[in-house]
Write a structure and sequence with these properties.
Layout (H helix, E strand, L loop, with lengths): L1 H6 L12 H24 L6 H12 L9 H7 L1
């Protein structure tokens, strides 16, 4: 979550290392986190799982497929 918040800050010099789609994904996660935090604090729960958000984004971007198209990506995920 720290990476998401840092990279999406306006003017962050490291943001150019990420593709536009990756930055959009990070912004989406940042927004979801903010909305979840507001709602969960009202309920007395402050948990937000970035891993679940990344997994959901991965599945939606890949047609809900559990197969990874490239062996290198599979190695990186392992």
């Amino acid at each position: 979550m720290r990476l998401v918040k840092t990279i999406t800050e306006v003017g962050n010099m490291y943001a150019h290392f990420f593709e536009a789609a990756e930055l959009r994904g990070m912004l989406t996660i940042k927004e979801l986190s903010q909305h979840a935090s507001e709602a969960l604090v009202k309920q007395g729960d402050n948990s937000f799982c970035v891993k679940k958000q990344l997994a959901a984004m991965w599945h939606s971007n890949n047609g809900e497929s559990i197969l990874i198209p490239h062996a290198h990506e599979a190695d990186l995920l392992r």
